[in-house]
Amino acid sequence: MPRRRAVLAALGVSVGLAGCLDEPPDLDPQLPGFEDANESAEESDPFAGIVFSDETLRDSGAAVDFRVTADNTGNERQSITLRAFLYTESGSDPLRTVDRVFDLRPGVEERVGFRDGGIRLSQSVRTRLTRLVINAKVGNFGTNFQELASYSGEDVRAVVGE
User: Fold this and answer.
1) What residues have CB less than 8 Å from 105, skipping those under 6 apart?
2) Which of 7, 51, 134, 158 is 20 to 30 A from 63, alpha carbon to alpha carbon?
3) Residue 114 has pLDDT above 80, yes or no
4) For the chain, what are the domain ranges?
5) How far apart are CA 112 and CA 55, in angstroms?
6) Quick check: pTM over 0.70?
7) Are 116 and 77 in contact (CB under 8 A)?
8) Is residue 134 within 8 Å of residue 86, measured between CB atoms?
9) Mean pLDDT across the stretch 99-119?
10) Residue 115, φ and ψ in degrees, nearest 5
11) Which of 108, 127, 114 has its CA nearest to residue 57?
């Protein structure tokens, strides 16, 4: 615990100084626990070992299907959440979100997408859609989503053949 307290104290002093200096101060790597703090942050990165590639958007009848290749190069099974945000011109809040949660075993590369043929789009949603954003989150609670792909409403309508 003394090492952790020293790191927290050093960070507290740095944050306090940053408010006075108009720029962040350089941290001294000689402080006790400095390297341990950096290593633990890298080890706890939930995206370490997961690689997303080959994103595609295609027509699936009454839906638009997003597919991505997820490769777990790490040593642990990972829970992955894909979330689609459908936006219209009426503000910054999404009209609707669609989620897909799946587990990916270590050493497995899998092509994944949304269930039931993709993201269902009614005719009115297709017409009003201005943006489709696909985000991913690796891990459970306490992890953040990262954007994988973003499509304009015109791009989505072109895919579904309108």
Assistant:
1) 72, 77
2) 51
3) yes
4) 2-43, 50-159
5) 10
6) no
7) no
8) no
9) 88
10) -70, 165
11) 114
3-state secondary structure the chain: CHHHHHHHHHHHHHHHHHHHHCCCCCCCCCCCCHHHHHHHHHHCCCCCCEEEEEEEEEECCCEEEEEEEEEECCCCCEEEEEEEEEEECCCCCCCEEEEEEEEECCCCEEEEECCCCCEECCHHHHHHEEEEEEEEEECCCCCCCEEEEEEEHHHHHHHCCC
Pull the structure tokens for residue 59. 């027509």
Measured CA to CA, the distance from residue 21 to residue 90 in angstroms comes to 41
Q: Which of 5-9, 51-55, 127-131 bottoms out in mean pLDDT, i.e. has the lowest? A: 5-9
For residues 41 and 35, the answer to whether their CB atoms sit within 8 Å is no
Token pair, residue 93, equals 């809040």
The amino acid sitting at 157 is: R
For residue 121, what are the CA distances in angstroms to 96, 106, 147? 10, 34, 21
| Band of pLDDT at residue 71, cut at 50, 70 and 90 | very high
Residue 161: is its pLDDT beyond 50?
yes
Question: Which residue bears the tokens 């579904």?
Answer: 160
Tokens in use for 52? 């997303």
